[in-house]
Design a protein that fits this description.
alpha+beta, Flavocytochrome B2, Chain A, domain 1, 37% helix, 12% strand
């Protein structure tokens, strides 16, 4: 992950000697970058086999863009109804999610349900640099 942070800082053109403290926008970018990396470090790897065990109304996990979400407590609140999510409980729901028009708020709301991500050998929507092969989803 240190390599990823170094690459990110280089991309943002922030030298290894530190940030020009008079430039607040660079400082904000660095903090946002660190927060994203911390999020990536904080979530465990969860296999598709493990996700498959969580396929009930009382224990519902889904995968969207290679990330695992525990949506158990969101089922009753889902505007499209709980059956829409339950159709994909314990499985990858990326195609269904992408095919439905979700607001930016809905996409951002997903972050609160994030519990993990698939191991690299099971990822099909993210590259090795954790770049998503689609747009409009949370980082």
């Amino acid at each position: 992950m240190a390599f990823a942070l170094t690459n990110l800082l280089q991309t943002l053109r922030i030298g290894s000697l530190g940030i020009n403290k008079s430039d607040a926008s660079d400082a904000i970018l660095v903090e946002k970058a660190k927060a994203k990396i911390d999020l990536q470090l904080a979530v465990p790897e969860i296999t598709l086999e493990e996700v498959a065990h969580h396929d009930s109304f009382d224990d519902c996990w889904i995968v969207i863009y290679d990330r695992v979400y525990d949506v158990t407590h969101f089922l009753r609140e889902h505007p499209g109804g709980d059956d829409v999510i339950m159709d994909h409980a314990g499985r990858d729901a990326t195609i269904a999610f992408h095919g439905t028009g979700h607001s930016r708020h809905a996409v951002e709301q997903m972050r609160q349900f994030l519990i993990g991500e698939l191991p690299p050998d099971q990822c099909i929507f993210r590259t090795g640099q954790n770049k998503v092969l689609s747009s409009g989803i949370p980082d």
